[in-house]
Design goal:
Blueprint: H1 7-16, H2 19-22, E1 34-37, H3 48-56, E2 67-70
Antiparallel strand pairs: 1-2
């Protein structure tokens, strides 16, 4: 789990991410690997006005669906 204060910070981290480097030893040789990722909003970390909106104006989708990409 990683926490980012801004969208730009999260995108910079994703730009540096290498799925092959993150895999346990030996996994990089397997075929048909898929990376899965999803995002989640920590509503408790939001500024007070947005935290109030998230509580009063449902549905706030605090978590995205899983997204998948093949590892090449």
């Amino acid at each position: 789990t990683a926490v980012f204060q801004t969208l730009g910070e999260a995108l910079r981290q994703l730009d540096r991410f290498s799925a092959i480097e993150a895999l346990p030893a030996g996994m990089g040789r397997k075929k048909n690997l898929v990376v899965r990722i999803r995002a989640r909003i920590d509503t408790e970390s939001l500024p007070a006005p947005l935290r109030l909106m998230s509580a009063l104006l449902p549905p706030w989708n605090e978590q995205s669906q899983w997204r998948e990409w093949p590892v090449q």
